[in-house]
Design brief:
The protein is mainly β. The two termini are 39 Å apart. The chain folds into three domains: 84 residues, Thrombin, subunit H; 84 residues, Thrombin, subunit H (Beta Barrel); 82 residues, PDZ domain (Pdz3 Domain), CATH 2.30.42. It has a seven-stranded antiparallel β-sheet, with no helix packed on it. Strands 8-9-10-13-12-11 form a six-stranded antiparallel β-barrel.
Length: 296
């Protein structure tokens, strides 16, 4: 373990192992499978924070703390906008990790990741922050601020990222090996800003339009690399290989421009996508869906 010893000692009891079961009919199983394992971190005596895709659509979930006790959540709240999920737990109290503030993080800041490889085994790794800034992903996901680090995750996703004072800085949701050996963390400030929504104390803002496509940048253009079966794009006839030129007349050349154009509308509203297919330009009328309803 390449980190100061006091950090894992201070927070190991806050890190939990997570296993979830998803019914085979749930639309997420085609990509994510019907059994998922990950890590999480206690942010309250009966609250566990993790990456949302680990529990999306879960019919059953169990959490095993450092004490070896099995706990089951009484409520799971998934937040597609942040990519986080909050589990309200039954059973014995957990030891919450101290929440820090991720806003002051700068490139070069030392950070430490502690994760699970099984119910009882924990592994850690250290590294540096490489950047703090915008991030877009192909599943209609975008963050204004994400934490990129040199930390190589030695275990499961959903792991907490700590600073040198053992304060929680974020949740590691993604390993990026195609471009560089790195990991991405969702900043803890985003959880703090949306905590009341995740705890159910505050209503969710108006839902965003969701089209159910997997766009990527190809030679400076937005290409559709796939669609979600049964989703709005699939129903509208969009397909792999289509290039999206504009949304409601607004040209788009990046994922950020595409999502910003999508999210001007809400579920149930129509969008007109100008696409290039087989060297021909056409307009496809798409009725936006609600991701929360589709993946409930």
């Amino acid at each position: 373990m390449d980190s100061p010893v006091f950090i894992p000692r201070a927070v190991v009891s806050s890190v939990v192992f997570l296993r979830s079961e998803i019914h085979e009919s749930h639309p997420s199983t085609a990509v994510l499978g019907d059994e998922r394992m990950g890590a999480g971190v206690a942010v309250g005596e009966h609250l566990v924070l993790t990456a949302h895709y680990l529990v999306m659509g879960a019919s059953r979930a169990v959490v095993v703390g450092g004490d070896g006790r099995l706990r089951e959540p009484r409520k799971i709240v998934v937040d597609h906008e942040s990519g986080l999920a909050l589990l309200s737990m039954n059973g014995a109290a957990l030891r919450p990790a101290p929440l820090g503030r991720s806003a002051p993080l700068q490139p070069g800041t030392p950070v430490f990741l502690l994760t699970c490889t099984g119910e009882q085994e924990r592994k850690g790794a250290s590294g540096l922050v490489t950047s703090v800034g915008p991030f877009e992903a192909f599943w209609e996901y975008m963050l204004d601020t994400a934490i990129m680090t040199t930390v190589l995750n030695p275990g499961l996703a959903g792991a907490p990222l700590f600073d040198g004072n053992a304060q929680l800085m974020g949740i590691v949701s993604l390993g990026i090996a195609t471009v560089a050996r790195a990991s991405l963390a969702i900043p803890i400030d985003l959880f703090s800003a949306r905590r009341r929504i995740l705890e159910g104390d505050e209503s969710r803002p108006e839902a965003r339009a969701w089209l159910g496509m997997y766009p990527q940048i190809n030679d400076g253009a937005v290409a559709i690399k796939g669609v979600v079966p049964g989703g709005p794009s699939d129903q509208a006839g969009l397909a792999e290989g289509d290039f999206v030129l504009s949304v409601d007349g607004q040209p788009v050349t990046s994922l950020r421009e595409l999502y910003q154009a999508f999210w001007k509308k809400g579920p149930g509203e129509a969008l007109d996508l100008q696409i290039l297919r087989d060297s021909q330009i056409r307009v496809v009328h798409v009725l936006a869906g609600d991701r929360y309803d589709f993946y409930k």
